Amino acid sequence: MSWTTVATTRRETLTLAGIAGLAALLAPRMSFADEATVAAEIKKLYGDKKFDSGKVKLDVPEIAENGLVVPVNVEVESPMTETDYVKAVHVFADGNPLPGIVSYKFTPACGKAAASTRMRLAQTQNIICIAEMSNGSLYMTKSNVKVTIGGCGG
Fold it and tell me: Which pLDDT band holds residue 123 (cuts at 50, 70, 90)?
């Protein structure tokens, strides 16, 4: 085997490796939830129940310079008594791989229905927050977050 044959084979191998790498990059990317997917998830939880506005405060930045770490603060107005309290809060995003981001469960012993977390956002998207009250009523709010650098593969 001569040196030129080895060099050509090596070159061909590197070329094929480069093509394979490019193909992997161009292959279909991870799919993301959309508004319909989020609506289907919400319907699974609550069926055709109606949502009211108010009571839920969703604090997220309007612009997230880095989608890797986006602060999310949720607070629900409630007396948190034995007969009137927040049972659960669910946060959804319509542009991430999975629509459900986080769910919180509350009891009257919590004293206040508030929670904070950080999440990754792959792209500009809506954040939807639903509060489920002890009497069965539901409250929803939505906020749009513009992401300049995606955190979930974006």
Answer: confident
33, 98 contact by CB (below 8 A): yes
CA distances from 26 to 6, 106, 132 (A): 30, 44, 42
Same domain flag for 4 and 56:
no
CATH of the domain at 118: 2.60.40.2470
Q: Are residues 82 and 137 in the same domain?
A: yes
C-alpha 36/C-alpha 106 separation (Å) is 28
Task: Report whether pLDDT(122) > 60.
Answer: yes
Q: Domain span at residue 7? A: 1-30
Q: Are 112 and 104 in contact (CB under 8 A)?
A: no
pTM: 0.76
- Which of 136, 44, 40, 50 lies closest to 88, judged by CA? 136
Selected residue with higher pLDDT from 10 and 153: 10
